[in-house]
Design goal:
2% strand; 10 helices; 218 residues; mainly alpha
Length: 218
């Protein structure tokens, strides 16, 4: 089952990304107002990927609770919380779904007036661009490209990574995200970041489900 998912999902991610390019070029208003809009198709697909990642991590905690040390279980649970946080942020913690009013703080400091952290603006600094853009971009590049090589070459680092239950990406995870990034640039749209987020969340789910060091979860 994992092998089928690992084959099919990357193909679907890539196809979806380049369909997005076509739509952005021939129907830019549809791309912006429907496909990449808040509560649009791409956003909900991100929520699905993040929710699946959370479930996978929680199942591992339960299944391995008697066979792995506390630090391993704690880090795996922490990964589940990361997925949960990401899903919550995407839907502004259900604010739009349940029509909940924002507090004064978020109404005044959030670029969309919503209850989430990634759209906060503090002293004129857009948190989304600083933390979730530049810094996260560097971290992702290191994680997908550099860390796997270090994992293979440095035995002590490998031991630490496995002990702390850190999933190591496979090379094709990087390739898929690179293709999505190229597709996003080809859209020539101001909403191209939504396409990258879509690809990123699904790649994150895939590398959690079937990492290079998957044996640590077995």
């Amino acid at each position: 089952m994992k092998k089928k998912i690992e084959f099919c999902v990357p193909v679907l991610i890539t196809i979806t990304a380049f369909i997005g390019v076509y739509i952005a070029r021939v129907a830019p208003s549809f791309f912006i107002e429907v496909l990449t809009h808040e509560d649009g198709l791409l956003e909900w697909l991100q929520v699905v990927a993040l929710s699946l990642g959370m479930v996978v991590s929680l199942v591992r905690v339960v299944r391995l609770r008697k066979r792995k040390p506390p630090i391993f279980l704690l880090m795996t649970f922490g990964l589940a919380l990361v997925f949960f946080f990401g899903a919550g942020e995407e839907i502004s913690w259900g604010q739009r779904l349940f029509k909940i009013e924002s507090t004064n703080y978020f109404a005044s400091n959030n670029s969309q007036g919503e209850t989430n952290f990634h759209n906060l603006m503090i002293d004129g600094v857009y948190i989304n661009k600083l933390v979730f853009g530049k810094l996260l971009g560097v971290a992702i590049a290191f994680y997908l490209l550099i860390l796997p090589m270090l994992y293979l070459k440095i035995s002590k680092l490998k031991t630490i990574i496995d002990k702390f239950a850190v999933p190591i990406p496979r090379f094709h995870h990087f390739v898929v995200l690179l293709l999505v990034f190229i597709a996003a640039e080809l859209t020539l749209s101001s909403k191209k970041g939504e396409l990258v987020e879509f690809g990123g969340t699904w790649v994150f789910f895939l590398l959690t489900l079937n990492p290079y060091n998957k044996a640590i979860y077995e």
